[in-house]
Amino acid sequence: GAGVSQSPSNKVTEKGKDVELRCDPISGHTALYWYRQRLGQGLEFLIYFQGNSAPDKSGLPSDRFSAERTGESVSTLTIQRTQQEDSAVYLCASSLIGTGPGYTFGSGTRLTVV
Amino acid sequence: GQQLNQSPQSMFIQEGEDVSMNCTSSSIFNTWLWYKQDPGEGPVLLIALYKAGELTSNGRLTAQFGTTRKDSFLNISASIPSDVGIYFCAGPSGGSNYKLTFGKGTLLTVNP
Fold this sequence. Notes:
A: mainly beta, six-stranded mixed β-sheet, four-stranded antiparallel β-sheet, globular
């Protein structure tokens, strides 16, 4: 597609439920990133995928968070047993190579845990 | 870890005024990036700086890479209503060239 597509755009879930967020990167972009943006805060790095290399999961805040990517296409971020502090906007980005300036961000999924 | 401190946190200006905001760090960054985020959207890259002392312009925007490598500045001249948004500085951190650290942003409001 023309840009990075994320779905759903908004998600409200009850505390304790699992949620799955989806990201469709720009076609041909080998690198994919997930970031979290809490209200009034900057973006926090979560995870990075580059081709077939092992992902960099160093930013995942707990073992309730996991992410997968199918080849060089769709990625899903899963949050298990959601907590209220998980409420945030989850942003996905992709790039041709794994360098910061090449990022194109999606519009994000706004997650609210009630 | 590395942190970026942005100031001011917010600004309210009149259309036509010039704006200046900055970003500082206690550690060295080898690349400085400035992004703008509109409501409900992801950040969009405005300017990338790669060399200490570098001054780069993009239309009415000008950014500078501080000579100490620990700061950067973004100026917007002759502001217009569509300049409204949150401006973030960012830079690669943790020894990688892909993992970005972001500041908390400067919220800019422009009164027409």
